Amino acid sequence: ANVMTPTRMAEIAQEIAATEDLEVSVLEKQDMEELGMGALLGVARGSHQPPKLIVLKYKGDPENPSKTLGFIGKGITFDSGGISIKPAGGMENMKGDMSGGASVIGAMQALGRLRPKTNVTGVIPSTENMPGGEAQRPGDIVRAMNGKTIEVINTDAEGRLILADALVYAKHLGVSRMVDIATLT
């Protein structure tokens, strides 16, 4: 987790995009604030690592932009559970909570190499879930990008929060069908 931070995950996506001729963009914290992504930002509040929202686009059927499949991948690079902290035993494995996001990046790389006649947009919300002094607390209320409010009962249920904003953003990008790829969520 100290190596595969959200920033490093975004760098790898950018490297793959350059190699495979994919479009890439990375939303920073300020971009997320402007878009009203309070669910994703709520999870990110406890970490010193800045959150990233990674977007990869493969356009194999540019004549049909309305037919775009979305792969939405959970990119929690370390999940301590936040204030609702996990038991210490096995917590070191929570660096794997980004495997949904990594799978999306890998799938986008494969699409770039195979060049099928389809459109796919990959969206990876990436952050850590940590119990820092600014961390969200059980009982806090966050507002997702679509305006819906969510009461946080357990801060270890962070996956649904980051995916909520990612799913709304994917729809905003014109994705017509979505598959979320996530560990435990």
What is the distance, rounded to the nearest whole angstrom, between the alpha carbons of the first and last residues? 20 Å
Describe the global form.
globular
Give the oligomeric state: single chain
Q: Which band does the percent of strand residues land in?
A: 15-25%
Helix content: 25-40%
Order of helices and strands: HEHHEEEHEEEHE
Judged by helices, strands and strand pairing, the structural class is: alpha/beta
For the sheet with most strands, the description reads: 6 strands, mixed
Average of the residue pLDDT scores: 97
**Could you give the count of β-strands?**
8
Which consecutive residue ranges, at least 5 long each, have pLDDT under 50?
none
Number of H/I helices: 5
Tell me the radius of gyration: 16 Å
Describe the structure.
With 185 residues, the chain is an alpha/beta fold. The protein is 32% helix and 25% strand. It is built from five helices and eight strands; from the N terminus they run αβααβββαβββαβ. The protein has helices at 6-20, 29-35, 38-44, 99-114, 158-172, and strands spanning 23-27, 52-59, 68-73, 75-79, 119-129, 141-143, 149-151, 177-181. The strands form two sheets. Strands 1, 2, 3, 4, 5 and 8 form a six-stranded mixed β-sheet that branches. It has a two-stranded antiparallel sheet with strand order 6-7. α4 (99-114) links the parallel β4 and β5. α1 (6-20) runs parallel beside α4 and α3 (38-44) packs antiparallel against α5 (158-172). The longest helix has 16 residues, at 99-114. The chain starts with 5 loop residues before the first helix and ends with a strand.
